[in-house]
Amino acid sequence: MSRTATPGDCGTACQFIKPDYAAMEARVHGRARDESRPNELFFGPFQQMLRARLKAPAEGAQWTGITSRLGERLLETGAVDAVLTMAPDPDDKWKPRPVIVTRAEGMAQVRGMRMGYAPLLALLEPARAAGYKRVAIIGIPCQVHALRHLEEKLGFERLYVIGTPCSDNTTTANFHEFLGLLSDKPDTITYLEFRADYHVELRFDDGRKKAIPFLMLPLSDLRSDFFPLTCRTCVDYTNALADITVGYMAGEGEQWLIVRNDRGAELLALLGDEVATAAPGSSGKRAAPVKGFMANTERAAGGLPLRRMPNFLRPIMGWLMPKVGPKGLEFGRARLEMKAIETVLHLRREAPAKMKNMVPAHVWKLVAPYGIMPGKDEARD
Ligand SMILES: Cc1cc2nc3c(=O)[nH]c(=O)nc-3n(C[C@H](O)[C@H](O)[C@H](O)COP(=O)(O)OP(=O)(O)OC[C@H]3O[C@@H](n4cnc5c(N)ncnc54)[C@H](O)[C@@H]3O)c2cc1C
User: Fold this and answer.
1) What is the distance between the alpha carbons of residues 381 and 376, in angstroms, rounded to a whole number?
2) Distance from C-alpha of 121 to C-alpha of 5, rounded to nearest angstrom
3) Crossing angle for the helix pair 287-300 and 329-350, to the nearest 10 degrees
4) Is 163 touching ligand 1 by the criterion CB < 6 Å?
């Protein structure tokens, strides 16, 4: 937004200044998250949650390609003139580059996840100037928050918002550093995902695959500011202001859809029987792992939560966790509570004066079961 004709909008639209999720959810979805409905406190307002996969997975997609296929279907059916999203930079496949896609075939090039930041919303003015009136945008939560602030002013005839969850992002340069710790030939890595079974999956250009348990990751070798404070204190993991959120966190090895409003339902319907869906599962108990995470975050004193565990135990725990740890929706709820705990602990340490504005009421409710309460001047009135 700082690159648009009205950079001053950053002051109100930025998620990291004074977000008002209750008011924005009410405006976008017709109602704010309703705590009497199971799971809305965690995942935001929704009509339907599903475990899902494309029956024919798209090549090059991060999971089965539901996200990019939605964009493709919108273009194929003429529902939109353009889709604003991220393509890989021609000089660095891990660097996101904002693009305006106007032909359905063009969506194939944007498939896959890239770690990094790029000015997606700077394309809104060029899209409008090009005469595109019906537009879709695929974005991570911080992009969607700002977009929702601008939406009315932009005056598009129709706007579809497809969101993905985002736990932590970092610069592409930092990401390359991480890849360098995972392999002695980092340039050969073509795919990376933090899976819901507590493993990072890597794929290589010779077709090899490797799954590394989270506990075995070389996180302690990364700088404490590897993830910026904004990502460490983000209160919108699930992209609550999108029409539909397409992720994997609660999908138990498949994808996870959160259909939030009628437009989201319209998007899902575009996939017809290309998509297989089921009710999401849930098992295990999250309290102990969340408490463990909280203790580690406290001990890490602002850095990445390091497990104080003897090295010989790590492979055993890495093997055990996918079997006994929380799964499906319970895993999703665990991650939401962990993110909420991180928000409070990191802000208290690094930017206490910002807490009152940056921590919405729903976050305080997520951390309360773990004994974290707002201190004086920390919560909004
Ligand atoms: C930084 C990051 C962190 C994420 N963390 C989680 C998580 O913790 N839990 C979870 O469930 N899901 C997370 N996701 C989403 C997940 O990686 C998949 O993108 C999602 O499940 C969709 O899979 P797909 O096969 O449908 O996507 P595809 O059909 O392959 O399409 C992926 C879409 O994501 C867009 N994209 C790729 N990189 C970026 C980027 N850097 N910024 C903005 N858009 C981008 C592409 O342009 C494309 O439109 C994250 C995504 C990103 C970018």
Assistant:
1) 11
2) 12
3) 20
4) no
Using CA atoms, how far apart are residues 27 and 30, in angstroms rounded to an integer? 6
| Residue of 54, 62, 145, 327 with the most ligand 1 atoms within 8 Å of its CB, for mutation | 62
Q: How far apart are CA 248 and CA 235, in angstroms?
A: 18
Q: Which residue bears the tokens 């595109």? A: 132
Asked whether 275 lines ligand 1 (CB < 6 A), one says no
Structure tokens at 187: 């340039």
- Cα separation of the two ends of the chain: 30
Cβ atoms within 10 Å of 241's Cβ, excluding its own: 29
Query: Which residue is associated with the tokens 């359905």?
Result: 104
| Model confidence pLDDT, tens digit, residues 96-128 | 999 999 999 999 999 999 999 999 999 999 999
Q: How far is the CA of 198 from the centre of ligand 1 (A)?
A: 18
Buried b (16+ CB within 10 A) or exposed e, 268-287: bebbeeebeeeebebebebe
Beta bridge partners of 84: 100, 137
Q: Is 137 in the pocket of ligand 1 (CB under 6 A)?
A: no
Q: What is the pLDDT of residues 275-319, one digit of tens each?
A: 999 999 999 999 998 998 898 888 876 666 655 566 666 666 666
144 ligand 1 Cβ < 6 A = no
C-alpha of residue 200 to centroid of ligand 1, in Å: 15
CA 151, CA 140: separation in Å to the nearest integer?
16
HSE value, Cβ hemisphere, 13 Å, CA-based, for 283:
10
Tell me the pLDDT tens digit for each residue of 5-62: 889 999 989 999 999 999 999 999 999 999 999 899 999 999 999 999 999 999 999 9
Q: Is the CB of 65 under 6 A from ligand 1?
A: yes
DSSP-assigned letters across all residues of 152-188? HHHT-SEEEEEE---S----HHHHHHHHHHH-S-GGG
CA neighbor of 84 nearest in space, from 97, 73, 93: 97
Q: For residue 65, how far is its CA from the centre of ligand 1 (angstroms)?
A: 10
Is the Cβ–Cβ distance between 35 and 159 less than 8 Å?
A: no
Question: How far apart (Å, rounded) are the C-alpha atoms in residues 4 and 2?
Answer: 6
